[in-house]
Amino acid sequence: MSRVATIDIGTNTTLLLIAEASGGTISVLEDRAEITRLGRGIGNDGGLGQEGIDRTLAALSGYAVLARVHEAPIFAIGTEALRRAPNAADFLCRAAALLDTSVEVVNGEREAALTFLAARLSFPEAAAGTMVVVDIGGGSTEIVVARRGAVDSCRSLPLGSVRLTERHIHHDPPLDAEIAAVRAEVVGHLAETPFPSEADQPCLVGVAGTVTTLAAMAQDLRSYDPALVHGYRLTLPALESQIDRLRSSTQSQREAMAGLDPLRADVILSGAMILREIARRLGGGTNVLVSDRGIRWGLLYEKLGNG
Asked: Could you tell me whether strands 150-157 and 141-147 are parallel, antiparallel, or unpaired per DSSP bridges?
């Protein structure tokens, strides 16, 4: 198999990657991402909302057309929203009809393993030491700790940018008490999560839309450029600066910020706070090595036999 289409149906974003392998080189034919907010409501333990379902199915319909144009077999994965929602089965049936293949709803461990595979192959030098890979999604956060390329521990936490925002933030801009509630929930879950010590000099790799958005914002990018985001090092002071700016801004002000997709403006603060608390756990000098290659890339590598 030399040409593959992989789709990641997330809580907040639906992504497509179509790539071709030839002579050890992978060429990207299509790389798309649409914020479809399939998991709106999961912060309140609800089902998939009709608007999110419709937006996600529309995105999948367009992705299926692109895959057929490129004659690429489709492999699709669903994550936290589809793990939890009581009405997920109906959505999955309709999605399978559009894609002409079933959607694999993965558990947190497999999600983390695919994320780690993408990070390990993207940053082999970092993977040779101690690596902490963090994938902050809309509904969950996966944390993988690896040493010398082998996974040491893997956790999936019920922390996500959409989930925390829906649960705790109800004012614009958010109240101090709401910010404190988000932080308390994040810190509580992280307290039960194993992390390497600062003496291990771990490399923190951040994956997915929250992290890549923060990297784009730190660089004041008016248009997203993967070449400037993938491999960027986001320092803890720069991250703190973005959080301060976001928490004091209104929704309309956030929507106008360079590097921030307006459709992500309502949930980015909660995601940024998750990343900050993880970085703090690893030590004050920690920075984040940003990866633009998440689950869809891990699945691509797996199907191409690069695992």
From this structure: antiparallel
pLDDT digits (tens, 9 = 90+) for 4-57: 999 999 988 999 999 999 878 899 999 999 999 898 765 555 688 889 999 999
For residue 180, what are the contacts with CB-CB under 8 A and spacing of at least 6? none
For the cut 90, the answer to whether the pLDDT of residue 198 exceeds it is no
Domains of the chain, start order: 3-105 (3.30.420.40), 124-295 (3.30.420.150)
Sign of the torsion formed by the C-alpha atoms of 265, 259, 223 and 4: negative
Q: Coil, strand, or helix at residue 209?
A: helix
Identify any residues that bridge with 151 across adjacent strands, giving them in sequence order: 146
266 Cβ contact list (under 8 Å, min separation 6)? 165, 251, 254
- Is residue 5 within 8 Å of 66, Cβ to Cβ? yes
Helices 176-190 and 161-168, axial angle in degrees (round to 10): 130
